[in-house]
Specification:
Layout lengths: L6 E5 L9 H7 L6 H15 L1 E2 L8 H7 L1 E2 L1 H14 L4 E8 L11 E8 L12 E5 L4 H4 L12 E4 L1 H5 E4 L2 E4 L11 H4 L3 E3 L14 H6 L14 H11 L6 E2 L7 E5 L5 E3 L4 E7 L3 E7 L2 E4 L6 E4 L2 E6 L5 E9 L7 E9 L1
Parallel strand pairs: 2-3, 13-20
Antiparallel strand pairs: 1-6, 4-5, 4-10, 5-7, 8-9, 11-20, 12-14, 14-18, 15-16, 15-19, 17-18, 19-20
Helix pairs in contact: 1-4, 2-4, 3-4
Length: 342
C-alpha cells in the first residue's frame, strides 16, 4: 500500500492583488538611500495603520484597505511597500514579550530587517515554502537575515512603533522612533527569532532558555546612557535577570553614568548615583515617605550639569529617582524605581 505524503504550504507573505509601485513612490518621495526609504515607510505605518484588536487582519491587502492589522499585516505592508521601492526587506518570525512576560516566551510575532546596502538587493522574501510532512526542518533552517550582519541590517519593529494595546484598546504612539534601526543587542531583550541566526548577535547569540532569563529592557534606554552590549555581558557573566524599573519618556532630561543595576537595594548599604542633566530640570530621591530634593547637600552633590547622589537607605520599602521639567510647576515624575530590603 502506497504511503500518502501530505504537502504543507507555509505562508510567509500573503499573495497580493495590488501594484504597490505608486504607494511606495508616494511614501518615499524625496528619499534616496535605503535608510531614508525604510524610515519613511516606518513613519507612514505608525501614522496610518492601527493595531487590529480583533486579531483578524493578517495580510497587507486587507490592512491597506481597512488601515489596521496585527503584526503580520504591519510586516507584510512594510514588505510590499519596501520591495516596490527596491528595498531588500526581510520578515523575521519569532516571539515578542513585554515587561510582564519576563521568564517566558510569548506567542508568535514578527518584525522587519532591511538591508542598508541597496546595491546588495536579494531575491524578494518568499511568499510560501512548500514541504512534505516530516520535513518541517526545511522551514526551521530558513534564515531570513542570510547575508546580513549587525552592521548592514536595519532592525525595525513597525507594530510596536505604532503604539500599544492597553485593556483591549489600541493607543497610537507619538512619533516613537525607538523601534526603528534597533541595535540587535537591544532587540534581544524583547524579541526572540525562531532561527537563532536571525538574532544577528554572532557569538553573543542566546538560547531560548537564556533569553527567558533576560530582563525586559526597552531600546529607548539607550537615550538614558545605557549600553546594550555592556548590559548583555553583565547578565551573561553574573547570571542575573534583575534590573530596576525604568520609565521611558524622560530621556531628554538626564543621562545615567553610573547607577545600581539591580532592582533590589539593601538597607544600610551605601549607593552612588551619577548622572548628567541634558536639559533644565530638577531631581529628587524618595525613600519610603522621605523626599530629598537636589538642593539637599546631605544627599546631592551638584556641579554644573553633573549630579551625584550618595544614598544609604535607612528603611525598607520603595526608593525612586524622580524628575521635574523646568516647564512643570510642581509635578515630579518617577524615572527609576528600586525596592529596598533588609
Amino acid at each position: 500500500m502506497a504511503i500518502k505524503i501530505t504537502k504543507i504550504k507555509q505562508i510567509l507573505v500573503s499573495p497580493t492583488r495590488y501594484d504597490w509601485s505608486k504607494v511606495g513612490a508616494d511614501i518615499t518621495k524625496g528619499c534616496y538611500t535605503s535608510y531614508e526609504k525604510a524610515k519613511a515607510i516606518y513613519v507612514w505605518l505608525a501614522e496610518n495603520i492601527s493595531y487590529d484588536t480583533s486579531y483578524s487582519i493578517h495580510d497587507a491587502d486587507t490592512a491597506w484597505k481597512r488601515k489596521k492589522g496585527v503584526c503580520q499585516a504591519y510586516c507584510e505592508l512594510f514588505y510590499r511597500i519596501g520591495v516596490a521601492c527596491n528595498l531588500d526587506v526581510r520578515i523575521v518570525t519569532g516571539h515578542g514579550r513585554g515587561r510582564a512576560s519576563v521568564g517566558r516566551i510569548l506567542e508568535d510575532h514578527c518584525w522587519i530587517v532591511v538591508n542598508r546596502n541597496s546595491v546588495m538587493f536579494q531575491q524578494p522574501f518568499p511568499e510560501a515554502i512548500i514541504y512534505e510532512k516530516g520535513q518541517e526542518h526545511i522551514l526551521d533552517d530558513f534564515v531570513a537575515t542570510k547575508g546580513l550582519t549587525a552592521r548592514t541590517a536595519i532592525m525595525i519593529e513597525p507594530t510596536w512603533g505604532a503604539g500599544v494595546v492597553e485593556e483591549g484598546q489600541f493607543i497610537k504612539g507619538k512619533h516613537d522612533m525607538s523601534w526603528f534601526d534597533v541595535d540587535p543587542c537591544w532587540m534581544i531583550f524583547t524579541h526572540y527569532p525562531k532561527n537563532p541566526a536571525d538574532q544577528l548577535l554572532g557569538e553573543l547569540s542566546f538560547s531560548p532558555s537564556d533569553y527567558k532569563q533576560l530582563p525586559y529592557l526597552h531600546p529607548s534606554y539607550a537615550e538614558y546612557g545605557f549600553n546594550a552590549k555592556d548590559l548583555l555581558s553583565y547578565f551573561i557573566h553574573t547570571g542575573s535577570s534583575d534590573f530596576p524599573m525604568i520609565y521611558p519618556s524622560f530621556e531628554k532630561y538626564v543621562e545615567f553614568y553610573d547607577i545600581p543595576v539591580s532592582s533590589v537595594l539593601r538597607k544600610g548599604v551605601t549607593y552612588e548615583f551619577l548622572l548628567a542633566k541634558k536639559s533644565n530640570c530638577y531631581l529628587a530621591i524618595s525613600i519610603a515617605h522621605d523626599f530629598y530634593l537636589e538642593n539637599d547637600t546631605s544627599v546631592w552633590q551638584i556641579s554644573g550639569n553633573r549630579c551625584k547622589a550618595i544614598i544609604q537607605p535607612h528603611k525598607t520599602g520603595t526608593m525612586t529617582l524622580s524628575i521635574k521639567g523646568e516647564e512643570s510647576t510642581n509635578k515630579y515624575n518617577v524615572i527609576i524605581e528600586y525596592k529596598i530590603k533588609m
